[in-house]
Design goal:
Helix content: over 70%
Radius of gyration: 20 Å
Structural class: mainly alpha
Number of helices: 9
Order of helices and strands: HHHHHHHHH
Length: 203
C-alpha cells in the first residue's frame, strides 16, 4: 500500500526522521574533524542539505545537537564493545574487550584520521555546566564500571581490589587514547591492551 495522505502526518514524520539523521551525521563529521566551537550551524545544515529551520525543528539548539552527537558516539562505542564482548572467552578477555572496542573506534574511517576520543575532545571545548559534559562523564564512568564488573568476576570477594584495578586500567586506557589521538592510529591503544593483559596475568 502507498503512504497514507489523508492527514499528511506520517510522511512528514518520516521526512523529519530522515532530516534528523542527516543533520546528526553531518554534525558528527564536522564536530569530530573540526571541533565543536569551530563548527557553526550553517556549516552543518549545508553539509546535511537541509534548511536551518529543519535543524531547529529536530534539535532545539546547538547545545541539544552537541548532546545528541555525544550520545550517538557513546552508543557507537557500546556497539563495538558488545560485539567484542560477544566474541570474547570468559575471564580476562572480557576486560580486554573494552580495550579492543577503543582500538576499533580508533580504526574507523574518519575524514581527517583519528583525532582521539571524540567525547573528551568535545568536553574540552564545552563550558562548565554544559549538558554535553555530563554525557561524557557518564560514558567514562560506564567504561570504568564495565571494567570493574569484569574484574569482580575474576576477583570474587575482592571488591576493593577489583575497583582499584578497574581505575588503574581506566587511567591506562585514557592515556593511551590521548597518545593515539596525537599519533593518528590505534598503536598506543594496542600497547595499552598488552599492558592490561600482563597486569591481569599477575592478579
Amino acid at each position: 500500500m502507498g503512504e497514507p495522505t489523508t492527514d499528511g502526518q506520517r510522511p512528514v514524520k518520516r521526512r523529519r526522521g530522515a532530516a534528523r539523521g542527516r543533520i546528526l551525521d553531518a554534525a558528527a563529521r564536522r564536530f569530530y574533524a573540526d571541533g565543536v566551537t569551530a563548527t557553526g550551524i550553517d556549516t552543518i545544515t549545508a553539509e546535511a542539505g537541509v534548511a536551518k529551520m529543519s535543524l531547529y525543528n529536530n534539535f532545539g539548539s546547538k547545545a541539544d545537537l552537541v548532546r545528541a552527537y555525544l550520545m550517538a558516539r557513546h552508543e557507537e562505542w557500546l556497539g563495538l564493545y558488545e560485539r567484542r564482548l560477544t566474541a570474547a572467552a570468559p575471564g580476562p578477555a572480557a576486560v580486554l574487550a573494552v580495550f579492543d572496542a577503543y582500538a576499533d573506534h580508533a580504526e574507523l574511517a574518519y575524514e581527517q584520521g583519528f583525532r582521539g576520543c571524540g567525547l573528551l575532545n568535545a568536553a574540552a571545548e564545552l563550558p562548565a555546566g554544559h549538558p554535553g559534559r555530563a554525557v561524557v562523564r557518564a560514558h567514562k564512568e560506564e567504561v570504568e564500571g564495565l571494567l570493574a564488573a569484569h574484574l569482580r568476576e575474576l576477583l570474587p570477594g575482592q571488591e576493593e581490589r577489583a575497583r582499584s584495578t578497574a581505575e588503574h586500567l581506566a587511567f591506562l586506557l585514557e592515556g593511551a587514547v590521548v597518545r593515539a589521538g596525537l599519533e593518528g592510529d590505534s598503536t598506543r591503544v594496542r600497547h595499552a591492551r598488552e599492558l592490561a593483559s600482563s597486569l591481569m596475568a599477575a592478579l
